[in-house]
Model the fold of this input.
Amino acid sequence: MSVWQKEIGFALLLFLVALISGSLTGHILLFMFLLTLGLWIRQLLQISRFERWISMGGRGEYPRVSGIWEDIYHHVYRIKKNERKRKKKLGKMVDQFRKSTEALPDAAVVLGPSDEIEWTNKAARDVLGLHQSDKGQRIPNLIRFPEFIRYLKSGNYHEAVILPAPVDHRITLAVRVVKYGAGLRLLLAQDVTQLKKMERMRKDFVANVSHELRTPLTVLKGYLETMRDMDDGNSPLLTHSVLQMQGQTERMQHLVDDLLLLTRLETQQKKVQCVDVPALLQQICKESDALETAAGRIELLLETDTRITGEEQELRSAFTNLLGNALKYSPDDSTVTIRWHRSESAVILDVKDQGEGIVAAEIPRITERFYRVEVKRSKKVSGTGLGLAIVKHVLMRHDAKLNIVSEPGKGSCFSCCFPVTRACR
Ligand code: ADP
Done:
C-alpha cells in the first residue's frame, strides 16, 4: 500500500470514529470540528518543523517523522544531497580548469562585453603585463597598440594580430580572440618570437640565394649565347647540347626572378595608387598577343571602367601569370577570355580558358609554392610552380580572393575578386 493510500485510509478511519462517536453522543458537528482541528494542528506542526529544517539548509539527517511527511523529507533530502554532490563536482572541475589555464604557456584573458578584463592567467600577467587588480578595467586602456585596438574593434577574429609584448618588445606575440558564451571573449596570446625569427631567416636565405644566383646565371647565358653564335652546325651533338643548356638556364632565370618577386611581395611595403585596370589589361593582352603561341587567341571584355587602389607592378605580375597559364594549359587554337566586371560587392577579373582543366582534389594545392600538377600532355609545358603562389600573394596584399572553378577536359576560370571598397577614380 502506498503512503498516500495509508494517509487517506487513516484520515477516513478517524472520520468514521468521529462520526460514530458523534452520532452516539448526538454531537456529530462537534466531533467533526474537533477532528478537523486536530488534523489541521498536526499538519501545521509538521509544516513548521519542515520549515525550520529547510531554513537551516536542509543539512544533516531530517527529523523522525512518519507517513507522507517522511516521503517529503526524504525527497527533499535526496535533491539537496545530489545538488551538493553536483556543486562539489563542479567546484572541483572549475578548480582544475583554473589550475590548468594558470599553467598554460599561452596568455589567456577572459573579456566581458565591453572589453573589460574578467579573468587572467599567470602567463597573461607575465607577458602582457596585466595585474590581478586590473580586473574590470578595459583592456584597450592597458594594451595600447593601435593595431591591437583596431583588431579588437573589428570583430573579425579569423586571423591573429602580431604584436610586440608590452613587457618586452623583443618578444613577438600572436594575439587571437575567440568568441564564446553570451558576449564573452577569450583573448589568447602566443609567443611566436622563435617562429618569426625562423621565418625571417628563411626569407633572407631565399632572397640572398636568389640574388647571388643572378650573376652566375647572366654569365652562363652570355657564354651560351656566344657558343650558339659560333656554332657552325657541324656537330649536331654540340648544337643540341647548347640548346638544352640555354633552355635550362632560361628556366633557372625564371625561377630566380619568381623567387625574388615573392620575396619582394613578402617583405616590401606597398606603393599604393589608383590603378587603371582596364588600361593595364589592354596592355598585357597586347603584349601577350605579340607572342607566337597567343596570337589572335585572347578575347578581352571590359564591362566596367572601374579602377582599383593597389600596386600596379604587382597586379601586372598576377594578371600576366593568370593569362600565361590560361594560354599555356589550353590548346593552341582555343580562345582565352579576360573579363573585367563589377558586382554589388566586388570588382572581378575572370580569366577563362577552354583547356585541360584541373581535377577538384588538386585545386586547393596549386597555389602552393613549387606545386605543379602531374598531367600527361602531348606537349611539354615548362613552368616554375611559383606563378599561382605569386598571384595568391598579390591578391592577399590587395584584400582580394582567388576563386578557381575548373573541370578536367573543359577548362578553367580563375577569378580575382577585389572588394568594392578598393574602387577608386
Ligand atoms: P607553373 O605554371 O609555372 O607550373 P603555377 O603556379 O602558375 O606554376 O601553376 C601551378 C599548376 O597549376 C600548374 O603546374 C598547372 O598544372 C596548374 N594550372 C595553373 N593554371 C592552369 C590552367 N589555366 N589550366 C589548367 N591547369 C592550370
Q: What stands out?
A: The first helix runs from residue 3 to 25. The chain has a mean pLDDT of 91. Residues 321, 325-326, 329, 353, 355-358, 366, 371-373, 383-389, 412 surround adenosine-5'-diphosphate (CB under 6 Å).
